[in-house]
Amino acid sequence: MRTSISIAAAFLLLSGAHAQTPTDEASEAALTDMTEECTNYNYAPVVNAASSFPTLWTPVSSVPTTDPGYAKFIAMNASIPNIAPKGTLGVPDNTINTYPSSDPDCWWTESQCTTPKTAGVNPDIASVPEPRTLGYGFDDGPNCSHNAFYDYLESKNQKATLYYIGSSVMIWPLQAQRAVADGHEICVRECLFSDIYLGLYGTLASDDTWSHRSMTAFNNEQAFGELWYTMQAIKLVTGVTPTCWRPPLGDVDDRIRYIAQQLGLETIIWKYDTFDWQANDAAITPPVTPQDVQNNYNTFINDATSGDFNTIGAIVLTHELNNFTMQTAIDNYEKLVAAFDHIMPVGVALNKTTPYVETNYTQSNFEEYVAARAGGSNSTSGSSGSSATGSNSGSPSGTGSKAQTTGTGSSAGVTIRASGLTLVLALVGALFIAQ
Ligand SMILES: *[C@@H]1O[C@H](CO)[C@@H](O)[C@H](O)[C@H]1NC(C)=O
Ligand SMILES: *[C@@H]1O[C@H](CO)[C@@H](O)[C@H](O)[C@H]1NC(C)=O
Ligand SMILES: *[C@@H]1O[C@H](CO)[C@@H](O)[C@H](O)[C@H]1NC(C)=O
Ligand SMILES: *[C@@H]1O[C@H](CO)[C@@H](O)[C@H](O)[C@H]1NC(C)=O
Ligand SMILES: *[C@@H]1O[C@H](CO)[C@@H](O)[C@H](O)[C@H]1NC(C)=O
Ligand SMILES: *[C@@H]1O[C@H](CO)[C@@H](O)[C@H](O)[C@H]1NC(C)=O
């Protein structure tokens, strides 16, 4: 009986020409057709929890008093720096030209300020401390069709920091789970229940015409809610709660930094921007072409080669947003490898060995990561020793297991995928034996 089920399964696996609805992380990760990857599916934990979350792609208007986040918000509200929200959600921001040039709020949008002017607020992370090191990361995932990109990173045994949008996590939960299974580091990319793509990017032609619907425009409760619900979405789907976030458009000031900090989130910004996110967007004036983006990559790579990061490493803004941004990342990867000594998740460069609230999930520190790569192991097959305890053997970065993150399965995600291949081979073997 068992054998015939296995043989049937082998046929199913081998005949995979037809679209199959993914049922778990491994089956989603195995899809190679972008249309199949982006075909909606239902994932019971999300369906069941949907009523506890705000409407997707809609700015959070308030946190209900019945939500566990409400008490947390009330507890911090009185101590949030008394800085007025900037602009009005969804309408052109008329205040931007009247904001004092002394930048009292350490508003990044105004002056790229990253060192707060309010006591008790932590500075942003805008560089990684290790010389000749790139804090590698991608904003705005999970893109539903990211398998080609994640497969590439996996083939290079390369881990990254991924800044995930709450609404996308709820819509593409199995894709989000792949990040943890692959050992990437997940951070919050807020505005995540808000519609940053539905108008914001399109109107970002210059400061004067900036219609912003970004973090500093929210009131305290809304800003809290944007971050809080994104954290809850990531926890619901992946089992881990991030401890870092990246403000959309870099739009952060001391009020927003403080709210994030009270939620346990480090603010991670950047000093270099490839502007990959603006390419091919007809609404951007003047237009940003693919060649412009490549030129930005080239400049950044040349800066690295000529020693600009010899005393402190770099963080550059790149995206998981669409095919172009992911493909451009792939096309430039080997050049970045050649230009930097080390490429790693931001948290690894910071020795942040417990990247999540759930401390039983660990990732390498800087030295361990470097040593693992120097060991020449590009293999992601994952020794069995790397799964159960979350130790870091066999993989240079995150080794949290599927078991830890979703409560199903019994070994690390990378191991599961390797085992999946083994399983297919075993079943093919069984098929021949059966005949
Ligand atoms: C939070 O604080 C702000 C500013 O002090 C205040 O206007 C608002 O009413 C407070 N929110 C709640 C829910 O108490
Ligand atoms: C993912 O990328 C594809 C291909 O560029 C794009 O069509 C799609 O809109 C993106 N989806 C998400 C959810 O990011
Ligand atoms: C981008 O699209 C092309 C053409 O569909 C595809 O071959 C390639 O794998 C995609 N790249 C990524 C990173 O998804
Ligand atoms: C990380 O740890 C290494 C030693 O293991 C140390 O040299 C480095 O300064 C640490 N970095 C940070 C940001 O703490
Ligand atoms: C490991 O990956 C690096 C970086 O992509 C590559 O240059 C090298 O050839 C790979 N080594 C092996 C043994 O595959
Ligand atoms: C890690 O801790 C969480 C609870 O915080 C638990 O659900 C999970 O099973 C733990 N995983 C392991 C492998 O201990």
UniProtKB/TrEMBL annotation:
SUPFAM superfamilies documented for this protein: Glycoside hydrolase/deacetylase (SSF88713)
Biased composition (Low complexity): 374-401
GO CC, alphabetical: plasma membrane; side of membrane
Protein keywords: Carbohydrate metabolism, Cell membrane, Cell wall biogenesis/degradation, Chitin degradation, Cobalt, Glycoprotein, GPI-anchor, Lipoprotein, Membrane, Polysaccharide degradation, Signal
UniProt-annotated location(s): Cell membrane
Name used for this protein in its record: chitin deacetylase
Annotated region described as Disordered, given as residue ranges: 374-409
Domain NodB homology, first and last residues per copy: 132-351
Membrane topology field: Lipid-anchor; GPI-anchor
Cofactors: Co(2+)
Pfam families: Polysacc_deac_1
GO-annotated molecular function: chitin deacetylase activity
Catalytic activity line of the entry: [(1->4)-N-acetyl-beta-D-glucosaminyl](n) + n H2O = chitosan + n acetate
Lipoprotein keyword on record: yes
GO biological process: cell wall organization; chitin catabolic process; fungal-type cell wall biogenesis; polysaccharide catabolic process
EC number(s) on file: 3.5.1.41
PANTHER family: CHITIN DEACETYLASE (PTHR10587:SF98), GLYCOSYL TRANSFERASE-RELATED (PTHR10587)
InterPro entries for the chain: Glyco_hydro/deAcase_b/a-brl, NODB_dom, Polysacc_deacetylase_ArnD
Signal peptide: 1-19
